[in-house]
Amino acid sequence: MSKAVIVGGGIGGLATAIAFQRRGWTVEVLERAPELTEIGAGLSIWPNALRALDALGVGDAVRARAVEEASSGIRERRGRWLSRPDTAAARERYGDPIMLHRADLLDILRREVPESALRTGISVTEVRPAGTVVHSAGESTGDLVVGADGIHSVVRRALLGQIAPRYSGYTAWRMVVAPTEPFVGIGESWGRGERFGYGTLADGRVYCYATANAPAGTETDGLPELRRRFSDWHDPIPALLAAADESAVLHNDIYELPNLKTYVGERIALIGDAAHAMTPNLGQGACQALEDAVVLARVATTEPDLTAYDRERRPRTQMIAAMSRRIGTVAQWASAPLVAIRNAGLRMTPDSAQFKALAPVLDWSC
């Protein structure tokens, strides 16, 4: 029986373990953290990723913990609509996007992987081309080593050497808020070099996120800074910030990877952020990791080598990363003349055109 050693026990790593198990492989998942947990943030699952979850056999379980994303759009800071996509037409063509807490998705995936296959508290120090992983508890060897270990991947370094992530130019805050009054909705608002977005979770809490242009490594004071920046924006943003808890605020600079020349070696393959860490502007980071998992398991089981995985996944994920980068660049414009041009262009763009532009992303199937 073939064996896959998967470095990283996040969403991508667990999805990969499930995909390989379903094809008859033995799996071993090595995770650096002492336990498998996820940060307090929401996650959009687009129809392409739902198809991947269905292929993994967990699509219905995920839908049961999620909420369908309601009509959304983009506003300016005072509340005027810039864009309201034709969500009904998009649903008819692609299916329903959903939103859930990242921890819920991780829990669903974790339940599908035997406890005996999960090894936490394991720090990987070296990966050898022949399929051996050297780590803090000794060594593990498999027919395939999968790098699901994020943007600072040790597995990627073994395959391609040191590759420095690239700073996007903006920083981000995320939090989950329990509003004082029932709230249903989803949306994103654009200012000058700043954005604020929100979406309801299945339990009634609201996932919020914000971005702002800033030098890499800029210190912030969390919730007070968010309130200074966004409390005068349109409703419901002030109320969400008023209901927020300082301890729930997560702050991270946004980095991405440059395009890699390959995702595979002889017995090594990269998935998720280890292969194509991208900005979050399309909500496709985790979605692409789920696609990777399904495709890699298929290729590794049915093809003589891994090059088919690289041919199938690298062009697609690098296209999506580039699209996300472009959206982020325009959304983060701070110049008043450029913002005026951007806003006018969005208002003049037919509502149906935006989802048509996403067809190459959403049309994917296993």
TrEMBL record:
<keyword id="KW-0503">Monooxygenase</keyword>
<feature type="domain" description="FAD-binding">
    <location>
        <begin position="3"/>
        <end position="160"/>
    </location>
</feature>
<keyword id="KW-0560">Oxidoreductase</keyword>
<dbReference type="InterPro" id="IPR036188">
    <property type="entry name" value="FAD/NAD-bd_sf"/>
</dbReference>
<dbReference type="Pfam" id="PF01494">
    <property type="entry name" value="FAD_binding_3"/>
</dbReference>
<dbReference type="GO" id="GO:0004497">
    <property type="term" value="F:monooxygenase activity"/>
</dbReference>
<protein>
    <submittedName>
        <fullName>2-polyprenyl-6-methoxyphenol hydroxylase-like FAD-dependent oxidoreductase</fullName>
    </submittedName>
</protein>
<feature type="domain" description="FAD-binding">
    <location>
        <begin position="262"/>
        <end position="320"/>
    </location>
</feature>
<dbReference type="InterPro" id="IPR050493">
    <property type="entry name" value="FAD-dep_Monooxygenase_BioMet"/>
</dbReference>
<dbReference type="InterPro" id="IPR002938">
    <property type="entry name" value="FAD-bd"/>
</dbReference>
<dbReference type="GO" id="GO:0071949">
    <property type="term" value="F:FAD binding"/>
</dbReference>
